[in-house]
Amino acid sequence: MINKRSIVVNATLTLILLACALSSLALGTLSITIPDVILALQGKGTTMHTFVLEELRGPRLLAGALAGASFALAGCLMQTLARNRLATPGIIGIDNAATAFAVASVVGVGISAAPHTMALVGAAVATALAFGLAGATGTRGYRFIIAGLAIGAVSGAITQVMLSSVALDDANAAYPWTVGSLNARAPAAVNALIIGLIVGYTLSLFLNRALATLQLPEPVTASLGTRSGRVRVAGLILSVLLTGLAVSVAGPVGLIALLGPELARTISRPGSIPLTASALSGAILMVLSDLAGRLVFSPLEIPVGIIAALAGSPYLLWILLHKSPDINR
C-alpha cells in the first residue's frame, strides 16, 4: 500500500529543502543571484562565484543538511523507543557527552584520537550509562530521561573544567564544539557522516514496521511476532551512531532532534513514524538556522547551535507546560 499523504509531505519537504539550499548558496556577505548560482554549479560561473560556492558555502551547506538530518532521524528513533517526545539525544545527555569527549581530544587531555572518533565514543558511553541507570525500564519512562539529564549535566561540567584548565589557544580551538558550529567541520568527519546517514536511514526503514508495533501494548506487540528487546537495542544503536556522527561535524545542536521530528509528526499521517519526513525537516531547520546565523548580524556570524537553541527552547518550554510528552497524544 502507498501512503499518498507521506508522498506529498516528503515531496513538499524536499522542495522546501532545495529552496533553502539555494538560498544558503546565494545569500551572504557576497550575494549571488539564483541564475548565477545555477551557472556556477554547472561549472559555467565566474571564478569568484565558483570559489565561493565550491570552497565556502557548498561544503558548509552539505555538512549542515547532513547533520540536521542525522540529528532529527536520531531524535525520531529515540522518541519512538521511549514513547516520549522529550527523549531526544540532546536532552538525555548524548550530545553533551559526545562534546566532552571531542573537546578532550582537541585540548589534548590524555587523548590522541580524532575529535570525530571521540564524539562517537562519547555518545556510546552516555547511552550505555543512561540505559544502565534506567534499569528494567530500558528506554521507556522518565527514569531513562532523568538519568540522561544527569549524564548531560555532568558531561557539560567536565567540558567546562577542561576548557578552563588549558591554554587560551586550545580553549579557542575547542570552542566551536561547545556551542555547535559548522565552521569546525572536518572532511573526514563529513565523509563518515555521509556513510553513517545512508546506513542509518536504510536500517531505520527496515525497522519501521517493528517500531510501529512498539506503540501498541506489550502483549499485542509480542503476538505480532515483534521481538521488542532486539528492536529497542537496534534503534538505540542507530540513534547513537547518527548522533555521534552529527556531533562530530556540527557540535551539540541537539534541539534539531526535538524540532525536526515534531514538525514531521505534525504534518504526517497520525500514528505513523515519519522517519523520512523527520530527516528532511531536520535538514531544513539546520540549513535555515545556519543561514540566519550568517545573515542576521552580518558580517558577525552567530553559531548555528545558538540559533537553534533560541528557536527550540521556547518550544521545549511550551511542550513542558501545555503538551503531553507522550507522542501518542
Topology:
Layout: H1 4-26, H2 34-41, H3 47-82, H4 94-107, H5 115-134, H6 142-164, H7 168-179, H8 187-206, H9 208-213, H10 218-223, H11 228-250, H12 256-267, H13 275-295, H14 304-322
Helix pairs in contact: 1-13, 2-3, 3-8, 3-11, 3-12, 3-13, 4-5, 4-6, 4-7, 4-11, 5-6, 5-11, 6-7, 8-11, 12-13, 13-14
Keywords: Membrane, Transmembrane, Transmembrane helix
Transmembrane segments: 64-82, 94-113, 119-137, 144-168, 188-212, 233-259, 271-288, 300-321
Protein name: Iron ABC transporter permease
Structure report:
The chain has helices spanning 4-26, 34-41, 47-82, 94-107, 115-134, 142-164, 168-179, 187-206, 208-213, 218-223, 228-250, 256-267, 275-295, 304-322. It is mostly helical. It has one domain (4-322): ABC transporter involved in vitamin B12 uptake, BtuC (Orthogonal Bundle). Helix 6 packs antiparallel against helix 7 (168-179).
Straight-line N-to-C gap: 25 Å
Q: State the CATH class.
A: Mainly Alpha
Task: Evaluate the radius of gyration.
Answer: 20 Å
Q: In the CATH classification, which architecture applies? A: Orthogonal Bundle
Please give the share of residues in helix. over 70%
The pLDDT mean sits at 82
Number of beta-strand segments: 0
Helix-strand sequence: HHHHHHHHHHHHHH
Structural class: mainly alpha
Largest sheet: none
